[in-house]
Amino acid sequence: MSKNTKFLLVSLPASISPTNDHDEALTTLRSAVTLDYGTVFPFTIPEFKIGTLDALVQQADDLAKLEAACEGVVGKVGDSLSTILEGDEDKISQSKTVNDKPVEQYLKSFHWNKVKYRADKPLGEIIDTLQKEVNSIDNQVKDKYNSYNSVKTNLTQLQRRQTGNLSTKALTNVVPPSLLIRDSDYLETHLIAVPRNITKDFLRAYETLTPMVVPRSAVQIAADDEFTLYAVTTFKKHSQEFIHKCRESKWTPRDFKYKEGGKEEESKELEKVIKDERKIWEQALRLGRTAWGEAVMAWVHVLALRVFVETVLRYGLPLNFVCGLIRTTGKLAKKARGSLDAKFSYLGGNAFGRDKKGRVTKDDSSTSADMQAAGHMGDGGEYSAYVCYEFEVR
Hints:
Elements: E1 5-13, H1 22-32, E2 39-42, H2 53-84, H3 89-95, E3 97-98, E4 101-102, H4 103-108, H5 123-163, E5 187-195, H6 199-205, E6 219-223, E7 227-235, H7 239-248, E8 252-254, H8 262-315, E9 321-329, H9 333-344, E10 352-354, E11 360-362, H10 365-373, E12 387-391
Antiparallel strand pairs: 1-9, 1-12, 2-9, 3-4, 5-7, 5-8, 6-7, 10-11
Helix pairs in contact: 2-5, 2-8, 5-8
């Protein structure tokens, strides 16, 4: 699906056709939106149990908030997929399906899922079910991706310790045990990573840095492009002072304790974390794909409910309406709305008029304020003569 694709979900009374026939009403809708502006597909919405008017007005408000939450979750799951797939647009696009269908195909063939969201239940219960599902999706994905980020960070740190410079990398494979003084009550060996451009300064100064540094004890252990690693021996009573002075001189003391079998232990730890990272990566990817599709599905069902509730509030009972999905683009959506306004402005009564050239004009802001108070405002806070919601699935 193109990133520029936008959808309009439109509901109109069947009375837009002379015979009040559903199919003829859909044809009338199609005639209002020519192929120049978009393509119209039928969008079937079942009838639900309707409560009181006050309940419907409250449900319209609840659904508006829930739809915003659904859109937010779809966006967050999409961002997580993008992160785990390292921004590979082809793989991301392949992962974004609903019921194993491309989003556009799912929308074009939409049918209310009567198993997950029983249409014979009261509207309030259906809304509550959708709310819980969306929250559950959000929490599951958040927890899994937090776990993945944690193990990924751990792996990155371990790999940095294997491949970094001598001021950061693990020293198990670098320092020969024979150079370290162990089991002494008085002496201690310190490992100091010195920037290569100041090694001469270090060799001139280390003996007098603090009292009781063993003269000529500096031994070069290893060097890389940035640092040279030295072993220096001091008396333990001045060890902390020596370490502090090294840091002041821009030399990096390395905290290293020799451990028998340390090489094998580090190798096993790295191998384990690599396996853990791969396992959680696969789990996070599977969950992300499933969660994205389920979040989109919930979102579309919420949109269908919004259309239904607004249709009841707008057109009244008995219900006889036609709903259409208009596939358009970001640039053409405004023109499609303009064409719909021109065709169906009469449904808005006094809220719409025409100028001297016969063009449709909307009434002043006071009318919009009245309509908003009555709960008849479309997306963006602008009154429309018919039920219409715009959305993009990214």
